[in-house]
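Quick one:
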Amino acid sequence: MAITMATTNPAKNILTVSGDQLLLDGRAFQMIGGSIHYARVPQAYWRDRIEKLIDIGCNTLETYVFWNAHEPYPGQYDFTGMLDLVRFVELGGEMGLHVIVRPGPYACAEWDMGGIPWWVLNEPGMRLRCSEPGWLRHVETWWRRLLPILEPLQATHGGPIIAMQIENEYGYYGNDRKYLEILRDLMRKLGIDVTLFTSDGAWDPLTLINGGIDGTLRTANFGSDPAARFKTLEQVQPGGPKVCMEFWSGWFDTWGNKEHIKRDAATYAGELDKTLAMGASMVFYMFQGGTNWGFNAGGNLSETFQPFVTSYDYDALLTETGDITEKYRLCRDVIHNRLGTKRDKKEFAPAARRGYGTIALSEHVPLESALSSVCDKVESAAPLTMESLGHGRGFVLYRTRLSKNYRGQNLVIREIHDWCNVMLNGKSVATWYRADPQPTITLEFETDELVLDILVHNLARSNFGHSMHEQKGIAKGVYVGPKLHDERAIFGWENYSLPINDATGLPFVARANMNGPGFYRGTLDITGEPRDTFIALPGFEIGCVLINGFNIGRYWSAGPQKTLYLPAPMLRSGANEVVIFEAVRAGESVTSTDVHDIG
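Output:
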């Protein structure tokens, strides 16, 4: 098997494939890499995480690119701060590592909609991840913005990028080979001339067949039994190199799990030893998982809906907060023993952290008072989806008014995506999560008019399979009636988008016996240099936390995660604004603690 690049550039660190080997500048190369997602780690901590990647014995840094983070709205691009992809790649190169970039357009990665922007769903008839012209038009527009900034970072141009991926795990999704060929050709057209590869699960040959293109390197994703997995890869790519692009170190947590998922460290290190003993190349997935800031967490939609928690700890070799683990130490020993290398005796102390104690939430803005400050009212006959409101994440409030004739009627909400609080004249009467049976809701009220509010939270868009097209909010309407055949639709709605991007301009007032849906504000005072800390929210139900205007993530009493990570770089000496958006009921305070509880 020979895979070459269309370049005559005499640059160094050129990755090619010859037979069953990866070659770097014509010499055998065993890639040992680790996945760190720049968008999940504070920029100030990138160097620390990469130092630990080097210490364990890795020679390669790998990352996905999340399209929807860089282009949250059409034509609005962001490559700053944690999204400074160029700086992340440059830093990996400066620290002596090769870099692999996986630009999608689909990533998966337990990220909202697999990295695809929600707004593509507003195009009628949109079909994702195939050769349909509408989808390809969006992809080309995005790549014409993205790939030119990666072009000069390729090894063929003197940079650290040695390879890039076409799509991701496409064999799990479909069989549109024309689509993959179009992506390959578009990458070449836009200046990408390093080695290209695909990656897919290696349990079924058909997955690897459909997910790859002949003449382009196929790689496998798995976390155990390398002999069996590489045997499947060999069936599809006979005589090719053994490369595991995702060597799974753990797994992800779902809201409602009893506890944080863990994988035995010694068992994992043993599987790594088997993999390296075969001469295979591999990439730890994840080396460090990091955090799903804001509403970036994805989910799975199969038999039930499974949204993922804010922490992306993944039981990886480094914790969410960047500390080394027993898994890290054991894998470090395996790598250096297998390679016959010696490591510096540098030790990494746990990150400095501090609990700052109770943060009183002395100010508030009821949801009703916040509406005019954070969004415009949109009137419609039936409830509108988030997407049709031009709104991708967060919450939507649906409001209608009913006469006394509706007293005693049963209320039915068809396809709530994904959680809601139902309020009658401002009082919460039921909360409902889509994976649970819908509660019985009777329209009981004493006044002549009922104000019916339904506050809906988008917990995640599926990041895998064919459910990513699902729109959020109320998908099929609101009805009254005793059974499906006799249900009557309720028409005449006000729709209010609540993206919860910041709390600027909200009319906060002193809090007085208020604990319902709305915004709550307090101050975290810090003397001296800030330290990492964690926010615990006893007495709160579901919502998110904004620190100095940045949404650090979603919380939910369903668990298993009970605290949110608040890194020191997001804090400052002196006063720090803490704003909680709570959708049901709020406690009097939150707590800054030095202990992270993810279940």
